[in-house]
Design goal:
Layout (H helix, E strand, L loop, with lengths): L1 E2 L4 H22 L7 H8 L4 H8 L12 E2 L10 E5 L2 E4 L12 H12 L5 H31 L7 E8 L2 E2 L2 E2 L2 E6 L2 H7 L3 H18 L2 H28 L20 H6 L11 H15 L6 H18 L8 H18 L2 E2 L28 E8 L2 E8 L2
Antiparallel strand pairs: 1-5, 2-3, 3-4, 4-9, 5-8, 6-7, 10-11
Helix pairs in contact: 1-7, 2-3, 4-8, 4-12, 6-11, 7-8, 7-10, 8-10, 8-12, 10-11, 10-12
Organism: Hymenobacter properus
InterPro entries: PAP2/HPO, PAP2/HPO_sf
Keywords: Signal
Length: 396
């Protein structure tokens, strides 16, 4: 029996099994068109009578106005517009595999302006207050959590068992195929925050979107990729700056803080430096937020997601991987990058300037979409005394 992390093959297999089923079932329920001019069209596109007449022919009425209204497929056979609430319609562009990787620098560049806003002052006060309060009580919280786990018979150790082992060698390198699964309930809860879990959820949306030509599912997958990776980069940077001990290796109550450890020192014994902030809950928060923002008609997403995050949070106290005060900042970072990714991944649909119906027959058209940051550079000639040349500038 091995400890700490499940094997890579096992993590991919198990998460793919769960997430493919979730994405296909949830997105499939959103597929039927359920619009009617008496339902949401009057609120969302009531700019002109012509608009209202156009929307009447979309689909028969339904009894509930809580269902998403999917606009007809475009000329390319793709679904791109979704009315998710009265007066709220979002347009999703088609995307390509791994294009989200090019969005990471943009998201990181936008983060300071999005996070450090005047209106976020109360949020920062809340984060600071909660983090300090939890830090004061960290040791007591850890002790209580582990005592409670013992009381209910929940094993603290994060362990795995090997179901399949196939030896494989390349020269002197031993590269076996292992199929491992969590060996106890606490390990299962801890697995909810594993990076493979969230990345496999993202891939399942991509598979569904590609099969059904559903731009919303494709963009959700893309947004998940960029939100998770952006979050991970910031979390890893903070871990390597703060150097906080994990509870299970702590040498004193609440652990030591080894600020700015060297790269070699950090890598020599990672658990001694990587507790703050939590990466598991950060990526979990990013995943839940991206999906909930893009599928608001499924109101169970946040309650279920936050409940699973609660189990994940407890499991990391029980197995001694994190302190409670590691949580607030990590969760906030995941939430912020999820909101940034969603904001950049869709556009609010507006009426056409002259009030006439758009070409796709919904009476609405998306506003112009700005080019991505890496395509916004401009060349310009310059003369400076006897020198002549060209300059290239990038506007953020």
């Amino acid at each position: 029996m091995n400890s700490y992390y499940p094997g890579r093959a096992a993590r991919l297999f198990v998460t793919l099994s769960f997430s493919l089923g979730f994405a296909f079932s949830s997105a499939a329920h959103a597929a039927p068109a359920v619009s009617d001019s008496t339902c949401w069209a009057a609120d969302s596109v009531a700019a002109t009578p012509a608009t209202a007449d156009t929307t009447k022919a979309l689909a028969p009425a339904v009894a509930s106005d809580s269902l998403v209204r999917i606009h007809p497929r475009g000329a390319d056979g793709r679904i791109s517009d979704y009315t998710v609430a009265p007066g709220v319609t979002w347009h999703y562009e088609n995307t390509k595999p791994f294009r989200w990787l090019f969005h990471i620098p943009r998201d990181l560049g936008q983060a300071p302006g999005y996070i450090f806003r005047k209106e976020n002052k109360d949020t920062f006060i809340g984060l600071a207050t909660s983090s300090v309060a939890l830090w004061v009580a960290d040791q007591a919280i850890i002790d209580w959590s582990q005592d409670f786990g013992k009381f209910i018979g929940l094993k603290a150790a994060s362990t795995q068992k090997t179901l399949v082992y196939i030896p494989f060698h390349v020269g002197s390198a031993n590269l076996p195929f292992e199929f491992n699964v969590p060996d106890n309930l606490n390990s299962t809860f801890y697995f909810l925050g594993d990076g493979w879990t969230h990345l496999t959820v993202a891939s399942s949306f991509w598979v569904y979107g590609g099969i059904k030509k559903d731009n919303r599912a494709l963009q959700t997958s893309s947004q998940l990729g960029e939100a998770i990776l952006s979050t991970g980069l910031v979390i890893q940077t903070l871990k390597r700056l703060t150097g906080r001990q994990s509870p299970y290796v702590a040498t004193k109550d609440r652990g030591e803080w080894h600020l700015f450890p060297s790269y070699s020192r950090y890598q020599s014994f990672v658990p001694n430096y990587d507790a703050f902030p939590t990466g598991h809950l950060a990526t979990a928060m990013a995943t839940v937020t991206v999906i909930a923002e893009n599928y608001p008609e499924y109101r169970f997403i946040r309650p279920v997601g936050y409940s699973l995050m609660g189990l994940l949070g407890y499991s990391m106290l029980n197995n001694g991987v994190h302190w409670a005060s590691d949580y607030p900042i990590g969760i906030a970072i995941g939430y912020a990058f999820a909101k940034i990714a969603v904001r950049n991944g869709r556009t609010r649909v507006e009426a056409t300037p002259d009030g006439s119906p758009a070409a796709h027959g919904t009476g609405m058209a998306p506003p112009p979409k700005p080019r991505p940051w890496y395509r916004q550079g401009h060349f310009a000639p310059y003369n400076y005394g006897p020198f002549t040349g060209a300059s290239w500038s990038l506007h953020w």
